[in-house]
Design brief:
alpha/beta; seven-stranded mixed beta sheet; globular
Length: 285
């Protein structure tokens, strides 16, 4: 099945939501693009290059090999997905060795390609910094935690907790934590060990839910409880995207169960970052 039955409905509501927020932006109700605290391009590209340099040092490769690994990522995931019988758990267990190294490089490019998301996260943290002495952030399904770790290095975050399954990206994160002496400020945890409640000022969950069979449950029982009231959720889930491991089950679950309804009831969307109804900044009511 190429697309789930809800795809056309989803496409309609996501475009309606996006166009609505574009209109609100034009009416200056959401004026982020014109705010003075947006970072310069220099800051963005500096963080991008710092991450690439750290990856090359960790993998002991040069820039040409980094690019090669990135280009290979457009081929092997589709092949591996079929070899694993389109089973997400088996697929994730096989992303090791050369696949794991390629995945680290591709994840870096993918994260920093979301420049507007980087700018929004930077500006929001900058604004919170003016009022809060301690800013605790969780990156849920972090992979390399490219953007959140960059914010930590820039002292926009006081404490960063990163949740995911163990992979070669985990070893890269642990290497960065040690390299920058951030053992007291940054922590990686196995996603199944999640026990944080009303803990975080911001939760980042970018390009994660579409890979899971139960996004509704994750939103209700993990992400929502860990955020403080008034806390910010930075979310994106490209349902039905071109990635081999984007699950049709995820779309069925999110739209067929309480996922989308729960999001709209328990959060208020204040910024739209893309033409996806979940993509943007949400405030916990």
């Amino acid at each position: 099945m190429r697309y789930p039955l809800s795809y056309y409905y989803y496409n309609f509501i996501s475009m309606f939501d996006y166009n609505l927020h574009v209109l609100l932006n034009k009416l200056n109700k959401l004026k982020l693009k014109k705010t003075p605290y947006f970072p310069s391009d220099y800051i963005y590209y500096q963080d991008f290059l710092t991450t690439i340099n750290d990856i090359c040092a960790f993998l002991n490769i040069d820039l040409n090999k980094f690019i090669s690994y990135y280009e290979e990522h457009s081929i092997w995931p589709h092949k591996l997905w079929e070899e694993c019988g389109r089973d997400a758990d088996k697929f994730n267990m096989q992303i090791i060795g050369e696949y794991g190294r390629s995945n680290i490089c591709a994840n870096c490019i993918s994260s920093f390609s979301l420049k507007y998301a980087y700018n929004v996260i930077y500006s929001l943290l900058d604004k919170i910094n003016k009022h809060e002495k301690i800013i605790k952030v969780c990156d849920y399904g972090c992979a390399n935690a490219n953007i959140s770790f960059s914010m930590l290095l820039r002292n926009k975050i006081t404490n960063l907790t990163m949740y995911d399954y163990h992979s070669e990206s985990t070893e890269f994160l642990e290497d960065r934590i040690k390299k920058y002496g951030l053992e007291k400020k940054a922590t990686w945890r196995e996603v199944d060990s999640l026990q944080d409640y009303n803990e975080y000022d911001m939760v980042i969950c970018m390009d994660v839910l579409e890979h899971t069979k139960n996004p509704s449950e994750i939103l209700e029982t993990k992400i929502f409880p860990m955020l403080k009231k008034g806390g910010l959720l930075i979310a994106q889930a490209p349902w039905g995207g071109g990635n081999a491991s984007h699950l049709d089950e995820a779309i069925f679950d999110f739209y067929g169960k309480r996922g989308r309804m729960f999001l709209r009831q328990k959060f208020k969307k204040i910024i739209s970052m893309a033409s996806l109804d979940i993509s943007g900044v949400w405030v916990k009511k």
